[in-house]
Design a protein that fits this description.
TIM Barrel; eight-stranded parallel β-barrel; 331 residues; alpha/beta
Length: 331
C-alpha cells in the first residue's frame, strides 16, 4: 500500500506555523511527515529557515501517531555526525519511536555558512559514508571510536537511547552514492520517480530490498488553490521556480541570489507544466501516479506557500487523500 505524506517546509513557514501544520496534517489523515533541514531558503520570496530540530521536538509533542523524518539532514559540515546521532536518538525518544533520520550529501546553500568551503561531489560522498558509519555506530549504544579521512570520534557514547532503532533513509541521485552508501541505509529517498534507480538499489549488494519494511520515498510539489489556477501558478512561480534546475545544479549554488539568477528566465508556463496548479484534485493524482508506477512506496506532497496554506489542509487534504488512495495500487 502506498503511503502519502505532508511536507513541513522550513523555507516557507516559521516554527509556530510548522507545528500547527503538523498537527493539522495528522488530524486530516496524512500517513507521515517530512521536514526540510536548511539554514537558508532557496529564494528570498520564501522567507523562512527556522532550526528544524527544535521544530521537530515541538512536533513530536504536538502529534500522537504520525511518523516523521528529516528530508534531509546533511551530517557532514554544519553538523558533526556524532551530534546528528545524538539528535536522532533524542528525537526517537521524544516521538515515541516515530522518527526516521533522512540523510544526504547536502547543498552548498546551507553548508557553506560554517566557512569550510564546498567540496567536490566525490569528497562529499566520502564524507557521507564516514558520517553514516559514525551515526550507525553511535546508535548501537557502545563506546565508539572512529578515525577516518574526514572525521574523528573520540570515546563517544549516546547516553539516552531509544528502545526502537532509528531507521536511516538515504537520499540518492545516482549509482555512485547507491553503491557507496546504500548498504548503510534502511530506506531510499529520491528526487525523481525513477524506477531504474529502485532497480539499481535492489540489485546492489548489501542494500535492503524495497518493499516490506524498506521504503522508497519521494516528494512532489503542488500548488493547490480553491478556485484560481492563475493565482496558484503565480505562487508556484514566485516560490518554486528554482525547482526546475535539478539537484545536480541546485546542490552547488551558494546563496538565494544565486538561485534567483539561475531561475531568472524560468517562465510561469514552465512552472505550470512541471507542478500541478489550481483546484483540480485529479490533476494532482495524475502528477503523483508516476511515483507509485516507478515503485515508490511513500510520496510526500509539498503545498507551495505553506506560510498562508490557503485552505489546503482544511479543505483539500481529505478529498485529495481519498482520491490518491483510490487510485494507488493496494500492494
Amino acid at each position: 500500500m502506498v503511503s502519502f505524506g505532508y511536507t513541513l517546509m522550513t523555507e516557507q513557514a516559521g516554527p509556530v506555523d510548522l507545528v500547527r501544520h503538523a498537527a493539522a496534517a495528522e488530524e486530516v489523515g496524512f500517513d507521515f511527515l517530512v521536514m526540510s533541514d536548511h539554514y537558508s531558503p532557496w529564494l528570498v520570496e520564501q522567507g523562512h529557515a527556522p532550526y528544524a530540530w527544535s521544530v521537530l521536538g515541538a512536533v513530536a509533542q504536538a502529534t500522537r501517531r504520525i511518523p516523521m523524518m528529516t528530508y534531509v539532514t546533511c551530517p557532514t559540515m554544519r553538523y558533526h555526525p556524532a551530534v546528528v546521532a545524538q539528535k536522532a536518538a533524542t528525537m526517537q525518544l521524544l516521538s515515541g519511536g516515530r522518527f526516521t533520520l533522512g540523510l544526504g550529501s547536502g547543498e552548498n546553500l546551507n553548508e557553506h555558512v560554517v566557512g569550510h568551503g564546498w567540496p567536490m561531489v566525490e569528497t562529499r560522498h566520502e564524507m557521507l559514508t564516514e558520517a553514516m558509519t559514525i551515526i550507525a555506530g553511535l546508535l548501537r549504544g557502545d563506546l565508539f571510536e572512529f578515525h577516518g579521512d574526514h572525521f574523528d570520534v573520540d570515546a563517544a557514547r549516546l547516553w539516552d537511547l531509544p528502545d526502537e532503532a532509528v531507521p536511516l533513509a538515504l537520499a540518492v541521485g545516482g549509482s555512485q552514492v547507491v553503491a557507496r552508501c546504500g548498504p548503510l541505509a534502511d530506506h531510499l529517498i529520491a528526487t525523481a520517480p525513477d524506477g531504474d534507480l529502485i532497480r539499481e538499489w535492489n540489485e546492489t549488494e548489501g542494500t535492503p530490498r524495497i518493499g516490506g519494511t524498506t521504503r522508497a520515498i519521494g516528494q512532489l510539489p503542488v500548488s493547490w488553490d480553491p478556485s484560481d489556477s492563475e493565482a496558484a501558478i503565480d505562487r508556484a512561480h514566485r516560490q518554486f521556480r528554482w525547482f526546475g534546475g535539478g539537484w545536480a545544479v541546485n546542490s552547488d549554488l551558494p546563496t538565494t541570489a544565486s538561485f534567483a539568477g539561475a531561475s531568472k528566465y524560468v517562465r510561469r508556463e514552465d512552472v505550470a507544466e512541471s507542478i500541478p496548479c489550481g483546484p483540480d484534485i485529479e490533476q494532482i493524482v495524475e502528477a503523483v501516479r508516476p511515483w507509485w508506477q516507478a515503485g515508490f512506496t511513500d510520496i510526500a506532497l509539498v503545498q507551495i506557500d505553506g506560510a498562508t496554506n490557503p485552505g489546503f489542509l482544511e479543505d483539500a487534504a481529505q478529498p485529495l487523500l481519498a482520491a490518491l488512495r483510490a487510485a494507488a495500487p493496494e500492494d
